[in-house]
Every structure is written in structure tokens, then in C-alpha cells.
Amino acid sequence: AYVNGCYKNMRDASVNIEDRGFQFADGVYEVCEIRGGRIVDLPRHLGRLQHSLSELRIALPMALPALSVIMHEVVRRNRVNYGIVYLQITRGVARRDHGFPAASVPPSVVVSARSLNFAKNQNTAAHGIKVITYPENRWPRVDIKSVALLPNVLAKQAAREAGAYEAWYVDVDGFVTEGSSSNAWIITHDGVLVTRAATDAILSGITRAVLIDALATMQLTLEQRPFTPQEAIQAAEAFVTASSQIVMPVVMIDGKAIADGIPGRITRKLREEFHRFALFS
Ligand code: PMP
Questions:
Q1: Tens digit of each residue's pLDDT (9 = 90 or more) over 57-81
Q2: Which residues, in sequence order, are CB contacts of 54 under 8 Å at separation 6+?
Q3: Probe residue for ligand 1, chosen from 142, 154, 181 as the CB with the greatest number of ligand atoms within 8 Å
Q4: Which residues cross the membrane (predicted)?
Q5: In a domain, 133, yes or no
Q6: The complex's ipTM?
Q7: Among candidate residues 88, 116, 144, the one where a domain is terminated
Q8: Is 256 noted as a catalytic residue in this protein?
């Protein structure tokens, strides 16, 4: 892992206990897919990183090309062919005090990478996943990819304990916002793809954005609007998107099967074709 200027073995890779990421979850992160040893859609991830940092007024600790070099180096040193690379930037190390530290305190930078089991991921996708619904209880700025993920941790654990893979947050108006670590999609019986518009109420997923661009080429229709769990259960297909899962079919919501309970045709096609539209570096 890369930790503030040094490459370290994972077991020695640690941060100071007064790091504001540790004390206050005062930091942001990105996760990119690695495929064939290359990083997928890195420029878009770095663009979102800049958004998260600027919304929290954390300085960019180095130029983006330098961050990119470090991320590639960590992938190379870990010999990851298929997996993920993780980047975290926090407001740095300072004596514990809620207000920002002096401007001279440099942000902390951590990068790690690990392999994922490709066959296992493909097998999960072949069967499709179950989701549960869960009351939206996050702050109103989830467009910022902050490391403050306690509500997401609890939602994911609730899903696991219910024998499901993901939790879909449902807002006070009864509409799905997104998953605890993914964006939520449905496909209507007319073949229209529906996903919520990227406002402050969801994280603007990179996989979501790449897929939206791809839909035009694939001559599929998109509606960016909220949908209810009821509409999702009655939909023709459903899926989630995230960098570590790409397009993952959803076959059951709150114990109710979607259509015939197997991954949908369009969903499978989107999963197969996604990387034609991705940028590798
Ligand atoms: N929403 C949330 C809350 C997430 O944590 C993630 C994945 N980090 C996503 C959506 C999907 O984003 P991306 O496609 O950029 O991985």
C-alpha cells in the first residue's frame, strides 16, 4: 500500500491515530475496478474525487497525474489482474479538534489494491442477487464520496442478516434512492431503463455514468427518475451498478421475485458489453 509518500507491506501500512479520517471520518475515497491489470475509467473517478474534495474543502494533495502514477504502481506491486484499487484522502493529522486544522497540515493519502475472485463474481451475476429495502437515514450530501459510511455499513449488514446481498435505501416519499454501495436500476416491460437522476440524494456512480453513455449507442431508452420498490418488484428486470460489480442483476426484492426470478436479458447484455464503453489505463 502507499501511505503518505511510502510504499509499505500491507501489515505495516498504518496511519496515525490522530489522522482526521480515523477521528472524524473527515476524508473521501474512490474505488476503481482493475481488469486485465489496467484501471477502469480512472479519469472519471479522479473527476469525482475532485468534486468530493472541493465540497469538503480538502486540498488536492498532489496533481492528478501523480495520483494516477501511484495508483498504477500499487496495482503493479500487488500484481492485481482482476480486482480493485482503493484511494483515500483525509484532511490530515492534527491534534483532535472538530474545526479544520491549520492550512499547513497536508492531507493524508493512502492507496491499496487487491485481487477479487472473478469466477465468484461471475457466478453471483449468473444467479442474480437479492436486495432488501431499508429506510434512507444518511445525510443529504451523499453525492460526496465521504468515508463516513456508518449508515451504509448498517444497511449492508441488515441485508446480509436477511440473506440478501444489497440494501436499497427508500426515502421518506417512498422512492428508492440507491443501494448501500451501488446505484439502483430497473427496466420496464417496455424496455425502458430507469434510474434516479444524479442529485445530492445519490452518489453519482461512475459505472452508472458510463452505462448511461453506452445506452445511446445500444439504442436503449433511459428515464432518469425515482421509482418505488413496488414498481421495481413489478418491473421486467432490475440491477445494480458499482465499480466492483459492474452490472449485477437483481432477482428478488424483499423476498419477492422480479419477473421469473432469473437475471434479465437486457441486464445480461449490458453486463457483457459494459467494458466496450469503458476507458482502460
Ligand atoms: N452508491 C454508493 C453509495 C456507493 O458506495 C457506490 C460504490 N462506491 C456506488 C453508488 C456506485 O459508484 P461507482 O459506480 O462509481 O462505483
A1: 999 999 999 999 999 999 999 999 9
A2: none
A3: 181
A4: none
A5: yes
A6: 0.99
A7: 116
A8: no
